[in-house]
Every structure is written in structure tokens, then in C-alpha cells.
What does this fold into?
Amino acid sequence: MGRTIIEKIIGARSGREVTPGDIVDVFIDARVARDFGGANVVKNLKENGLKVEDPKRTFFTFDCNPGGSDQKYAENQHRCRMFAREQGIKVFDVDQGIGTHIAIDEGLVGPGEVLVSTDSHANILGAIGAFGQGMGDLDVAKAFSDGRVWFKVPPSLKITLKGMPGPEATPKDVALRLLKEFGANGLLGYSAEIYGEYAEGLDLSGRMTISSLCTEMGGLIILFTPDERIIKGLGKRAKNAARMNADPDAVYDRERTVDIEGLGPMVSRPGHPEDAVPLGDVEGTVIDSAFIGSCTNGRYVDMKAASEVLKGRKVAQGVVLKIVPSTRKVWERCLKEGIIRTFMDSGALVGNSGCAGCAEGQLGQNGPGEVTVSTGNRNFKGKQGKGAVYLASPATVAASAVVGCIVPAEKVLEGGQISRRTVKVEPVPTRPIASCVMPASSVDTVVRGRVWYIPRDNIDTDMIYHNRHLAITDSKLMGQYAFGNLEGYEDFSKKVLEGDIIVVGKNFGAGSSRQQAVDCFKALGMGLILAESFGSIYERNAINSGLPIMTYGQKDDMFHDGDIIDVDLSMGTIVNMTTDRKLKATPFSDVQMDIYRRGGLLRKVC
It folds into this structure.
């Protein structure tokens, strides 16, 4: 039986033949921590008396707050620098840019290899046929200390792009089309491979744009087969590229064809990246600000596309345009070729390379009531500020900044007629305060608790734990912010009781790799989280921290607020003690049960 790309990569790095569902220890070629999460990785290592297994494969990248403009980020960066000096670890410091881009450009990994990072968009490595996985602080600490982490081999999905998009469409528009097709959880738990004439013709930047949005579809990774152009650009790290083709008789769990014939510019409406529509549906929407950058669209070709629209034009009066190249090398090339001058002449504000708007305090954030059009990958409520954020391509964003409303680039370049319309934006609510508990070292495998029934899908990590609190490293302080950005549950931490059980819908914990979205519930002493499915990274983070989570099949009227339920973690049975109804769930795997009994991935057996 033939193998898919992910089966080849994990098989090679685990030293055995693998099939979907197998749980194996995988060798990690590059282990990366950022200024977000890095200090917690260091803390986990020191508290558990662990050393770095291979400093040459271990890196820090400071890309969330390259200016060190927040005191906690500055402190965390310093902690990482001191640890790096002690251990002989290379630091790509605040002047270098986005870590996942550096990993590709500097050859930290090549096709067929594996990288883990505290960045939820580490799956951007799929653009070169490598397996990149965003993880929480515990996972990355384990990779630092052991060089290996456990993986459950995912099923594979084959995506074929049918046809060719129209001349105005960019890779970002195709990525938004995929988001529309698969939604926020359509790739949940899958490794996807992408094929078709359009996919095969994409350059590295275009592949990175599409791979980076895999997270927003709930997927583990979107993998491209590296061709000769990609291999040549990667140099010596591409020596294994020939092995990264799926076998002709590879077996896929699912196959899907997505029609992109004649596709035009797309835009995602505020709050949901997957709410992607043809640009015409929102054309004329008046904006207050615009942002070009992020790991999705901060490459040279993105800067070049924006400059072609901005050249000889001015940003509209009353509109702020912020631009952040992804890496120092991109910045320097733009400077050398006069692109930075074009940006400056247009009235744009250009920042130093990094993640920008996805991290609080950086260029690209907006305020209450503000309408922004952005090239970022996320527009969850509160993610890029308290206003509304539309997602679009660099050309669309640049054109919209010039006109002052959302428009296709061709209208600016050709002088087409433009009409405007306004939208009302509700500000993101503030959040409350609460207490915390310490985890138990030995636990019962039957959990009883009071239900918080929240029948919603796609509750993301920004709703669970907002990014403005990411610099906090003391987990005991995190409980007060749990669900602080989830509408209707802002006072959750004031009302929750130790041992309570949260019951939610599909794709709980979608979004970023932040461990805090797990630790806030541990601090509150939650008994269990039940969901129809979990975001892939969130699931790992919860399991590795010893927070009990379990998936269940939807059953109407099984749960109500305040019900008392018993859940057997080893058997996967749920009994509603209030209504005397029963439901079957997925029992803990051996790996999950072992970690749960130990109280966390890094806890040693006495």
C-alpha cells in the first residue's frame, strides 16, 4: 500500500512504518520557541531540571514583539537570551523577523523534516514539503530536552484545485476560497496535500500563503510537493526532496476537488476567516485603517504587489496604512529596490520586521469602532484589536487604503468608478477576575461535575484567552481571563466552581498555539472539557498539561446548564445524573491516560 507525504515524513522520523491513528515518538529536526511562549518553555525546563538535548537544533525567534515595547515581553525576551547564552542556543533576535519564514530562508529544516514551534502557524513549512507543527510550551520544552515528541499520525486529505483563477486573483484569494470551502473545521485533524495545475505552478511565497491558512481551517498542515524551482531555492536542505512525493497508490481518507476557475478577489468578513465572499459583496465598505504584513502576506512578492498599487498615489485622508515586511532580508530588499520609499511617499507607516498585528502592541492593531482591511490570517473578534477586520490580499489592501474603502486593485489602477458604504462596529467587551487551584499529582479516572453547556462551534483561543494577556507566565494568574472574550461568558471566571465541566461543540480551541488557553482552565480547577471535536494544537496542549478533555458524539438534549454528570475517562462513558441519560464518548488513549495520571507531560514517574 502506498504512503502519503505525512506518512513518509513521520515514518522516517519515527523509524517505523506508520498508518493513520498510530501514536509514535518522532525525532524533531528543529525545535523553536518565540518571545511568546519562550519564557514559559525555559521555566518548564528549569522547574523540571531538564537540559537542552541538542543546542544546534534548538532556536529562539523573537517575532511577536520585536520592539520589546511591552515590559513583560522585554522581560521574557531577556530570560530567553540568558538561557540561550547558558545553553549555547542560537537566537534570531528582534531584528530578524518571523520565525517560520526564517526557518525556511535560513534552512533550519528542509523537505521531509520536522519542526515544532510555539507558533500555531508553524504548518507554513508545508510549503516546502516539511512537517511544521505549532505546539504549546510543554510540548516544545519536551522537544528541547528530548529531541522527540509524540504524534498521532493524522489521516490525509487530497485537495485538487480545478481550473485556473482569473488574472486579478492572488494566492491569498485562493486561500480564502479554500477557507470558504472547508470552513473553520473542515480540515480538523487532517494533513492535506494540494494538487492541480495552479498549485504546481505556485512560487514559494504563494505556497506559504496557502499553507499558513491551514490553521484557520482546523488542519494540521497543508503540504505541497516541492518541485525543482523550490528545491533549487532551498539549497542543501532540499537533499531529501525527492522522497516527498506521495506514492501513486497512496490511500487518502478523503479527496476533495475545489473549483477555482475564473476566481476573482476574495474578502473575509469580520469575525470569521472562513466567512469569505467575492470582493464585490463588500465593495465600497468604508475603512479607517489598513495593514499589510503577517506570516501569510509579508514576503517580498507581497510587498512588491502593494508597491505597484501605491506607486505615485497617496493613502486616503483619514486612513492609516501600516506595513510590516516579514523578515529583515525582505525589508532590506525592499529598501534596496525603492519599495520602502514608495511606501513612505504614499504616507504609509513602515515597521520593523515581525508578526505585527497578530500580537498586541504591534503595528496593525485597531481600536473600538475602527474598520480595518488586513492581509493577516485571522480576524477573530479581538484578535487584531477591538474593531472590525476584513481579510484580503496585499493588492486589495493597498488599493483600499488609497481610496478609503474596500475596492479591487484593478479599479485603482484603471481609474474605475467607486461608491462607498459604512459599517457599524461594536467594541470588544472587557473581562473579569477569579481564583486558581493547583493540579493534583494523582487523579481519579471518573470525573463528576456541574455542566456549563455552551453549544457553540469554533470557540477560538482568542475567545478563551485574549492575546493581551500572553506575556503572563504565572499560570495561577491566568484563570481570571478564561472566556473573557467569549460573548455572554465574560464573567465566567467569577461564577465557575472547582470541578465544573464545560460542554461545547466542534473545533474548541481553534486558533493559536497559546498554552494559556489551557492553563486558564487548570487555574480555575475545571474538572473536564467535553467537545464534539478540538482544535489540533489545543488538544495536544490540554493532553500534555494534564487537563482532562474528551470528545463526544452529539446527542440532542443530553446536556443542560447545571446538570450533574459522571464521566469515566478510561471507558468513555457519560452519565447525566440529573436526567439519567447516557452517552458514549471517546475514552482516553494510553498516551493521554499516562500523561493525565502523571499530571503533565514533563512530570516524571516517581
The chain has three domains: 5-259, 278-414, 446-598.
